Amino acid sequence: MTSAGGSHPLPSVRAWGYFACVWCVLFAALHVYWAVGGDVGLASSAGTDLATHRPSWFVLLGLWGVALLLVAGAAFSVGMTRWRLRGRLRRVVVILGWLGGVVLLARGLLLEVVLLTGAGGIASAVGPSQTHWSLILWNPWFVLGGLVVSLATCQLQRA
Questions:
Q1: CA count, 13 A, side-chain hemisphere, 3
Q2: Which residues lie closer than 8 Å to 32 by C-beta, 6 or more apart?
Q3: pLDDT tens digits for 79-98?
Q4: Stated pTM of the model
Q5: Are 147 and 68 in contact (CB under 8 A)?
Q6: Over 70-137, what HEC string results?
Q7: Biggest alpha carbon distance in the chain?
């Protein structure tokens, strides 16, 4: 399969699956770093109050829990490149892949729009620093993750 210009082949399902895996592993590593006490970027992601006080529910669910979910996402992404599925199981994997990609895209794009438009007063509620970093780093990061997971799923569905 080639791109619109016909000169460059599109990455295979294997490549997109590995890109999605790398995205998940990098984000999981960041959550583990935060969970063990690291603080670089945490206030701009979760907010100053959570970053400062680190309630146990936040560390357990929001940091360790998300890290585990991302590790599962990494394994799933690699699995999409290796599994030889047919029938109902294949459809389930494709649905889960699309669901993951759409959730990540929606999180990144919708929050970007809300922050840019000031809808609901969320930008003033989270503060200028968190808004700034959400707009230039965190939301685009989620969009990137959504794109690579969706492309891996699209390629799997076509394969």
A1: 6
A2: 63, 64, 67
A3: 988 888 888 988 999 999 99
A4: 0.85
A5: no
A6: HHHHHHHHHHHHHCCCCHHHHHHHHHHHHHHHHHHHHHHHHHHHHHHHCHHHHHHHHCHHHHHHHHHH
A7: 54
